[in-house]
Amino acid sequence: QLQLVESGGGLVQPGGSLRLSCAASGFTLDKYAMGWFRQAPGKEREGVSCMSSSGLTTNYVDSVKGRFTISKDNAKNTLYLQMNSLKPEDTAVYYCSACFIGTLAPSSYLDLWGQGTQVTVSS
């Protein structure tokens, strides 16, 4: 059974850090470009970051460049998003899924989503 399980969200003060994890099962991450998406209340889902299947290429939305870092551990079949210098506007539910590197759009090659993890940045 194909599954993605996100974790690591929480409440953090502005300027703080969080590391999100996305555990995959039923398939291996090295077969797809995988990335992170977020959706804030009242807003459309946004592509945040994407990593190629090889792990050699990454892309980020401009608003998180220099603050967020995507990575993966193929042995653990887990995707990560290290988020530093968090801002209130980063507040959203974060999801992982397959992605297109160039556009940060969701990929139709693997239409699979987890339940998401809530990130709230507030003082």
Summarize the structure.
The protein has strands at residues 3-7, 10-12, 18-25, 34-39, 46-51, 58-60, 68-73, 78-83, 92-98, 117-121. With 123 residues, it is mainly β.
Write up what this structure looks like.
The chain is mostly beta strands and 123 residues long. It has strands spanning 3-7, 10-12, 18-25, 34-39, 46-51, 58-60, 68-73, 78-83, 92-98, 117-121. The strands form two sheets. It has a six-stranded mixed sheet with strand order 2-10-9-4-5-6, with no helix packed on it. The chain has a four-stranded antiparallel sheet with strand order 1-3-8-7, with no helix packed on it. The model has no long low-confidence stretch (mean pLDDT 96).
Q: What is the H-and-E element order?
A: EEEEEEEEEE
- In spatial order, strands of the major sheet run 2-10-9-4-5-6
The helix-and-strand class reads mainly beta
C-alpha Rg (nearest Å): 13 Å
User: Tell me about the biggest sheet?
Assistant: 6 strands, mixed
Helix segment count?
0
Low-pLDDT parts are none
The end-to-end distance, rounded to whole angstroms, is 40 Å
Mean pLDDT figure: 96
